[in-house]
């Protein structure tokens, strides 16, 4: 009887297991294997030998080093800044009564807007062309500064636009999560604190913050993972040739190795993918360990 | 500290704005809560008792009227300046803090000359924790405590900054029946020990009557009657109060005064003396313990059944003039007095101090005097 039930259980699980196995688990192992096969060729399914050469190549490739650096800078800047900004905006939204729905809608709009469309708008705002220096440069000029080429100019300027763009794109979802988290803190805690004469800042860091910390941790973890996998945002701003723009990311490097101009190196792509996986795993484990220390329940 | 409510009124704007207007939650209440007493605000849900408590605590601002603590007018000052301790229905213990930090929370907000050192805080926390007998659990999180223990932590938190008034909002409603009995005694003990003026809001009349020095029965935002629990029970000023107090509830009949007598339906139950002889329709209410089975009794009922619940023997019977959802008169009688046999007519004589007469229109009490024979 028990055996029957167990069998039935496995039967119900079978579709999901098959699907995940074919499209998630198997590729994961396959990529791992590719990453140790030197000079693998898709067409002939042949390779020269096995070893760690792919890794040493990728780790010495200046394009990979540049991509790694870009990715880390984007992650380290955009995740804390966007989470903090979202928290401030959510607190603002929670404390106003009039027009709250209107503002909530406005802040949520970027979420339903296509990445490439947003990229187009950013390019119009920031790009220098033969005819116009772009809206932002007009403002800089107005205040007495000189024009900067944000899209094709100095690295720092490009990085600035890149981070701004990424933050703007991820903000709506974080605001959505945090406003609902703040709204779900029972009112009675604030009443209790008010009876005890708690100031509004103390209420925030003694009640609101600890009570919504699980959501902040969730946003930090998913934010880190998402930012490490950044690629499409870079394409939207700087086009597909990210290496020559100097704005490539790890995922962009993997894509280039598979299909790009320099393409046709699945072994290198696999090694880079495994490196990215190792980085994300490490960061997530650290995140979880840190967050456990601060966990509420 | 004595609490004085003067002409206290709270109006809320109508939830449905298109209708406009106000809902009057507390309606011109005058109430004196004596120093060091445990006072129960009692009433059905929506009667304004919780709003009254929030007004006393300072969480809500009154629309009209004054609140005076001792000789200090506190109407316009903030909750923490009033020095009240409030225990919420759900306790509102901070789930992310352990018991010790929950109790210490109010002390951390003290500023200026009231500011305490860490050692003083720890000492105060320990004192109240001992008072409510929770000192063994200081390291636990609220989720690791039982309902009764959480309740005590909430009381400790309310008391820790030496509050002069303790306010309890439905403090027992989240506990199971056995714990409720135990906890209400506990509240009584803590109140006695600290001698703090305490206001206790509840819809449960058993709770209020068992532990309160005084009860104030509220309905529709107004205080209907205030007094010692037994006095209010024995001498209700209105039909509402008579119906609200007492389990099992009072039996209400359509009655009539005329011909120098008090009638329930067609039964003339009392001969009246004095001036109360003008013809009028009334309500007659009789406490369950006011019935005496008596073959020569004046109240003639249709027999129902006998119910024995532990020490109580109840006779359930019917009467044409009864106003009741169940259609049954519930009378509690001496077990030796039960001699009812099936099918026969059942007659009761009545204890006159358990019978109350109310006006049909105003539902206010009409005193009556029985002519002695």
Notes on the protein architecture:
The complex is a heterodimer of chains A (297) and B (373). Chain A has 297 residues and is mainly alpha-helical. Chain A has a single domain, classed as MetI-like (MetI-like fold, Orthogonal Bundle). Chain A has helices spanning 2-34, 53-60, 62-95, 100-108, 115-126, 135-142, 155-183, 187-195, 200-228, 232-238, 242-245, 250-259, 266-294, and strands spanning 37-38, 49-50. Chain A is flat and about 75 Å long. The two termini of chain A are 39 Å apart. Chain B is an alpha+beta fold and 373 residues long. Chain B has two domains: 3-244, P-loop containing nucleotide triphosphate hydrolases (Rossmann fold, 3-Layer(aba) Sandwich), CATH 3.40.50; 251-366, no CATH class. Chain B has nine helices and 22 strands. In chain B, strands 11, 12, 13, 14, 18, 21 and 22 form a seven-stranded antiparallel β-sheet that branches. Chain B has a six-stranded mixed β-sheet with strand order 6-7-8-3-9-10, with helices on both faces. A five-stranded antiparallel β-sheet of chain B has the order 15-20-16-17-19, with no helix packed on it. The relative contact order of chain B is 0.12. The model of chain B has no long low-confidence stretch (mean pLDDT 86). The A-B interface holds A 186, 188-189, 191-199, 202, 206-207, 210-211, 213, 296-297 and B 57-59, 78-81, 84-86, 88, 90, 92, 94-97, 105-106, 108-110, 141, 143, 157, 161.
Q: Report the mean per-residue pLDDT of chain A as an integer.
A: 87
Terminal-residue CA separation of chain A = 39 Å
As a percent range, the share of strand residues of chain B is: 25-35%
How would you sum up the global shape of chain B? elongated
- Rg of chain A is 24 Å
Mean pLDDT of chain B: 86
Kindly, what is the distance between the CA atoms of the first and last residues of chain B, rounded to a whole number of angstroms?
51 Å
The CATH C-level name of chain A is Mainly Alpha
């Amino acid at each position: 009887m028990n055996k029957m039930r167990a069998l039935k259980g496995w039967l119900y699980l079978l579709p999901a297991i098959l699907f995940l196995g074919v499209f998630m688990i198997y590729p994961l192992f396959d990529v791992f294997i590719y990453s140790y096969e030197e000079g693998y060729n898709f067409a002939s399914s042949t390779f020269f030998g096995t070893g760690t050469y792919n890794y040493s190549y990728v780790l010495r490739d200046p394009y990979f080093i540049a991509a790694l650096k870009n990715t880390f800078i984007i992650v380290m800047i955009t995740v804390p800044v966007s989470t903090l900004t979202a928290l401030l905006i959510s607190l603002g939204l929670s404390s106003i009564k009039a027009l709250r729905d209107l503002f909530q809608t406005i802040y949520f709009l970027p979420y339903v807007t296509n990445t490439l469309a947003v990229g187009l708008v950013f390019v119009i705002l920031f790009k220098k062309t033969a005819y116009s220096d772009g809206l932002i440069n007009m403002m800089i000029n107005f205040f007495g500064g000189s024009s900067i080429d944000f899209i094709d100019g100095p690295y720092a300027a490009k990085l600035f636009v890149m981070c701004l763009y990424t933050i703007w794109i991820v903000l709506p979802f974080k605001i959505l999560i945090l406003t609902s988290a703040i709204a779900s803190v029972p009112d009675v805690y604030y009443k209790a604190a008010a009876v005890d004469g708690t100031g509004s800042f103390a209420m925030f860091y003694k009640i609101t913050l600890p009570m919504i910390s699980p959501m902040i941790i969730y946003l930090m973890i998913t934010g880190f993972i998402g930012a490490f996998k950044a690629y499409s945002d870079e394409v939207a701003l700087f086009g597909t040739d990210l290496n020559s723009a100097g704005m490539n990311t790890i995922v962009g490097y993997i894509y280039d190795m598979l299909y790009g101009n320099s393409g046709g190196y699945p072994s290198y792509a696999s090694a880079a993918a495994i490196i990215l996986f190792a980085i994300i795993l490490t960061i997530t484990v650290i995140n979880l360990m840190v967050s456990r220390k601060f966990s509420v329940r | 500290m004595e609490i004085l409510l003067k002409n206290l009124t709270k109006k809320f704007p109508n939830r449905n704005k298109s209708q406009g207007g106000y809902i009057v939650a507390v309606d011109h209440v005058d109430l004196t809560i004596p120093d060091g007493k445990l006072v129960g605000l009692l009433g059905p849900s929506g009667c304004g008792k919780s709003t009254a408590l929030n007004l006393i605590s300072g969480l809500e601002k009154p629309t009209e009227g004054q609140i005076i603590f001792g000789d200090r007018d506190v109407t316009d000052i903030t909750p923490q300046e009033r020095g009240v301790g409030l225990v919420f229905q759900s306790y509102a213990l901070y789930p992310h803090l352990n018991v010790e930090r929950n109790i210490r929370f109010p002390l951390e907000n003290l500023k200026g000359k009231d500011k305490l050192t860490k050692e003083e805080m720890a000492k105060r926390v320990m004192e109240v924790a001992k008072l409510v007998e929770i000192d063994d659990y200081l390291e636990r999180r609220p989720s690791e405590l039982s309902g009764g223990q959480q309740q005590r932590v909430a009381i400790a938190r309310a008391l820790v900054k030496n509050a002069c008034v303790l306010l309890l909002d439905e403090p027992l409603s989240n506990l199971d029946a056995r714990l409720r009995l135990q906890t209400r005694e506990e509240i009584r003990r803590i109140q006695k020990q600290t001698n703090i003026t305490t206001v206790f809001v509840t819809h449960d009349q058993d709770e209020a009557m068992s532990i309160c020095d005084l009860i104030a029965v509220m309905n529709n935002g107004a205080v209907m009657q205030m007094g010692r629990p037994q006095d209010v029970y024995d001498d209700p000023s209105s039909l509402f109060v008579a119906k609200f107090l007492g389990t099992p509830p009072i039996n209400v009949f359509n009655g009539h005064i005329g011909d120098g007598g008090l009638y329930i339906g067609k039964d003339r139950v009392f001969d009246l003396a004095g001036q109360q002889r003008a013809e009028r329709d009334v309500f007659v209410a009789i406490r369950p313990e006011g019935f005496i089975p008596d073959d020569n009794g004046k109240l003639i009922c249709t027999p129902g059944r006998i119910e024995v619940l532990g020490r109580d023997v109840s006779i359930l019977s019917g009467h044409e003039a009864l106003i009741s959802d169940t259609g049954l008169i519930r009378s509690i009688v001496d077990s030796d007095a039960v001699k009812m046999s099936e099918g026969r007519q059942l007659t009761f004589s009545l204890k006159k101090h358990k019978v109350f007469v109310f006006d049909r229109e105003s539902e206010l009490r009409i005193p009556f005097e029985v002519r002695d024979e």
